[in-house]
Write a structure and sequence with these properties.
mainly alpha
C-alpha cells in the first residue's frame, strides 16, 4: 500500500489480509484437531489451507501424519515426496517415505528412498538402521527369485524361509514368501506340502491368483479334478 496507495490496491490488500486471517484461524483449528486425534477433521482443514499455501512443506508433513493415522499411506507418500522437494536436506521425509514403502511390502522402493536419506546424511541413525534391514531383505528376495528362474526350487524355499526370519514383524513379507514357497513346492511336485502352504496363503488372501493357480496345478497332479 505504501508503494502504490490507490483504491484498487487497498481493496486487494484488504482481501489478502482477510484471507490471511482466515488461513491462520484454519491453521489453529487444524492443529487443535490433530492434537485431539481427530485426523479426518485435521485433513479437511489442511486441504483448505494447502489449496492456497501450496508450497508449505510443514503443512504437507502434518497432513501426511494425519493420512498415516487414518490408514491412507499412499496419500501420505504423495505429501512427503512434495515436502522432501520443498525443504532442503529433508532426511525425515525420506525416512518416513522409506518406512511406509517397507510396511506396504515394497522393499525395492523402500531401499531407493532410504538411500536418498543417506545421501543427505550418511550418519543418520534411523536411516542407516532401516537401510541395513531393507538391504538384507532385498538381497534375500532377489537371491530367491534367481533360484526360481534357475529351477533350483529347494534353494529358493530355503531362501524364502530366511526372508520370514529376517522380517517377522511385517506380515506382508511372510505372506509373499509363502506364496512363492507354494509356487516352488508346486513346481517341485511336492504335492502334500504344496497344498498345505498354498491353502495357508489362500486363507490370508482368498483371491490370490498365483496361489490358486499353483494349488490347481498340484490338484491336477493328484487327479483331484473337481478341486
Amino acid at each position: 500500500l505504501k508503494s502504490s496507495p490507490s483504491n484498487n490496491e487497498e481493496k486487494e490488500a484488504q482481501t489478502q489480509l482477510t484471507k490471511s486471517d482466515e488461513l491462520q484461524r484454519l491453521h489453529s483449528q487444524a492443529l487443535s484437531a490433530y492434537q485431539q486425534e481427530d485426523y479426518e477433521a485435521a485433513i479437511s482443514l489442511l486441504d483448505e489451507i494447502l489449496a492456497v499455501c501450496v508450497w508449505d512443506a510443514e503443512l504437507r508433513e502434518l497432513r501426511a501424519e494425519c493420512y498415516i493415522k487414518e490408514g491412507e499411506p499412499s496419500k501420505a507418500i504423495s505429501d512427503l515426496k512434495a515436502a522432501a522437494k520443498l525443504k532442503n536436506d529433508n532426511t525425515e521425509a525420506f525416512y518416513k517415505i522409506s518406512r511406509i514403502y517397507y510396511q506396504l511390502g515394497d522393499h525395492e522402493l523402500s531401499l531407493s528412498e532410504v538411500r536418498e536419506c543417506l545421501k543427505l546424511d550418511q550418519d543418520h541413525k534411523q536411516c542407516f538402521s532401516l537401510y541395513k534391514q531393507v538391504k538384507k531383505l532385498n538381497k534375500q528376495i532377489e537371491s530367491a527369485e534367481e533360484f526360481i528362474r534357475e529351477g533350483r526350487y529347494e534353494d529358493a524355499i530355503n531362501k524364502y524361509d530366511s526372508v520370514m526370519k529376517t522380517e517377522p514383524e511385517v506380515p506382508i513379507y511372510a505372506t509373499r514368501a509363502k506364496e512363492r514357497i507354494c509356487h516352488c513346492l508346486s513346481k517341485n511336485q511336492q504335492t502334500t506340502e504344496a497344498i498345505k502352504v498354498c491353502t495357508e496363503v489362500l486363507e490370508l488372501e482368498p483371491t490370490n491368483v498365483n496361489a490358486l493357480k499353483d494349488r490347481a496345478e498340484v490338484y491336477l497332479l493328484e487327479d483331484l479334478y473337481e478341486e
